[in-house]
Design brief:
The protein has two helices and nine strands. By secondary structure, the chain is mainly beta. The relative contact order is 0.18.
C-alpha cells in the first residue's frame, strides 16, 4: 500500500536507524481471496523488524510495533507493542473537504496519517489518548459512506487483545 519513500519513523521512535524497507504481508478477505500488502519496516536484527507505518489491510500490528517476520508465510507476530493504535477509515462518496477536516482533527489529537488511497485513510494514534477520544472523533464523520475499524485492537474472533492495559 505504501512505498518505501512514504515511510517515516514510528511515533516517538528514535531507536532504529536502519533504512525502511517493504515487508510483504499476506492479507485475506472475508471471501478467502488473498493479496500482499507491502508494509514499511526497518530491520532490527535477523527476522525482527520495527513497523514504520500502520498497515491499511493487514490486521494485528501498528506503527512502532516490533515484529518477527515470517517471509515464507508472509506474516508478522508482535514481539513488543509500540503503544500505538491503527485505524482504517474506508470512505465512499465523502467530500475531500470532510476528509481533510477529519485528518486535521485527528492530527490535533496527536494522530498521524500513515497512508491514504482514494477511499482509505490509515491513521496511527498514540494509545494514551484513549479509546473514548478516538471514538468521539470517529463519531464526527458522516454515518453514510464511512466504515472504520481498529487495525490492532481485536483478534480474528473479535476479542480485545488487551495490550493497552
Amino acid at each position: 500500500m505504501l512505498s518505501e519513500e512514504d515511510a517515516v519513523p514510528a511515533l516517538g521512535d528514535s531507536t532504529s536507524s536502519s533504512e525502511p524497507i517493504g515487508l510483504r504481508l499476506k492479507v485475506e478477505s472475508d471471501d478467502g481471496a488473498t493479496a500482499d500488502e507491502v508494509v514499511a519496516a526497518s530491520r532490527l536484527s535477523g527476522t525482527r523488524y520495527l513497523v514504520r507505518l500502520s498497515p491499511g489491510f493487514y490486521r494485528g500490528i501498528a506503527a512502532g510495533d516490533e515484529i518477527e517476520y515470517d517471509e515464507t508465510a508472509k506474516s508478522a507476530k508482535v514481539v513488543t507493542r509500540g503503544g500505538n493504535i491503527a485505524i482504517q477509515v474506508f470512505h465512499e462518496g465523502i467530500s475531500a473537504e470532510v476528509i481533510e477536516s477529519f485528518k486535521a482533527s485527528a492530527a490535533g489529537l496527536g494522530a498521524r496519517v500513515d497512508g491514504e488511497l482514494e477511499s482509505l485513510v490509515v491513521l496511527t494514534f498514540p494509545a494514551n489518548i484513549g479509546f473514548r477520544a478516538i471514538e468521539s472523533l470517529m463519531a464526527t464523520l458522516p454515518e453514510r459512506g464511512i466504515e472504520w475499524e481498529y487495525g490492532n485492537v481485536y483478534d480474528q474472533n473479535g476479542e480485545p487483545l488487551g495490550w493497552w492495559e
